[in-house]
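User: Structure with flavin mononucleotide, C-alpha cells only please.
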Amino acid sequence: MNEVVRHLRAHRSIRKYQDSPLTDEQIHAAVVAGQAASTSSAVQAYTLMQITDPSKLERLVELTGGQSKVAHCGAFFVVCGDMRRHELLCQRQGQPFEVSLETFIVAVVDASLFAQNVCVAFESMGLGICYIGGLRNDLDEVDELLDLPTGVLPLYGLCVGEPAERPSARPRLPAELIWCRDHYPTDDEVLSQIDAYDTQYQSYMEARGAAAVSWSMRMVGQHAQARRVALAHYYRTKGVKLS
Ligand SMILES: Cc1cc2nc3c(=O)[nH]c(=O)nc-3n(C[C@H](O)[C@H](O)[C@H](O)COP(=O)(O)O)c2cc1C
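Assistant:
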C-alpha cells in the first residue's frame, strides 16, 4: 500500500479539537490543493467561507443542532456551491442566467470534490476534520447570518483543527458490495453482505460506548421519513430551478 492510500485509509472524523487556530499558510495550502481537483468544464463552482466572528460561530453552533465543535476547533468553514461568479459574468454581458437542476448538481459535485481534496490536504498536515451536514438544518437562517448573495449555496460546514481525540476507524461496507462489474448485485446478495457488515458495525458502536445499533437499523431510521424538506424551497429562493 503506498503512502497516499495509507493516508486516505487513516481517515476518521474528529469531533474534539485543541484550541490552537490554523495558520493562514495551512489554509492557503489546503485551498490550493482543493482547487487542483477536477471541475466540471472548469466551472470551479465553489467557495470556502471561513467563519471567524465568535458571535456567528456561536449562532452556527445552535443552527447545527448544538454541535459545539463548530465554535471550538482550529477553523470552521462553510462549503458553498457557487454560481455567483457565473451570474455576474452573464449580467455583465447582458445574457440570461439560468440555473437548472443540472447546474445545481454540477455545483454540488464540484464543491464536494474540492472540499474532499481540502480535507485530505489538512489531514496530511496532521490535522483532523469533520464535515457538518447539520448546517442544512435551517438554511434560511444560515443564509441571513452569512449574508449570502444569490448564486451562493451553502452545502455543509467543515471543522478543522488539531485533534484532541483518537477515535478508531468506523467500519465501511464490504468493498465487494461497492464495486460491481457489468451488473448490479441481486437484492439477496446486497442484503447478505449487509448482514455481515451489521455485526462488525454493532461491535464498533459498542466499543465506542454508543448504543449498539446496527447499520441497517440506523439506515432504516434515517430513511423512514423525508428529512430537511425545506431545502427545496430554500434553494429555489436562491434561483435554482429544481423542476
Ligand atoms: C456531508 C457530511 C456531513 C456530515 N455531517 C456531520 C455532522 O453534522 N456532525 C458530525 O458529527 N459528523 C458529520 N459527518 C461525519 C460523518 O458522520 C462521518 O463521516 C461518518 O460517520 C463516517 O465516519 P468517519 O468519517 O469517522 O469515517 C458528516 C459527513 C459528511 C460527509
